[in-house]
Amino acid sequence: MMARSNLVGVVKGALRPLSQLRWAADTALSRRLFGNTLKLRVNVEGFGRALWTRQAFAADLDPEVSAFYAEHAYYRPPVDLLPATLVTRLCERFSAALRDASQVRSAYTDDEFYRQYKLPPSTERHLLTQHVSDVHRSLPEIYEVFSPAVVRVIQSCFRSNFRVQSMAAWRMFALPPGLMTEPIIDRWHFDTGSTTRMRFLIPLTPMTRANGATEMWDRSYTQFLIREGFTPISWGDPEGQNHAIEERYFKDNPRLVRNEGPAGQAILFNPSACLHHAGPRDPGQTRDMIQLDIRFARQLQIPSLDRPLATGY
Ligand SMILES: O=C(O)CCC(=O)C(=O)O
Question: What is the architecture, at CATH level 2, of domain 35-308?
Answer without folding.
Answer: Sandwich (2.60)
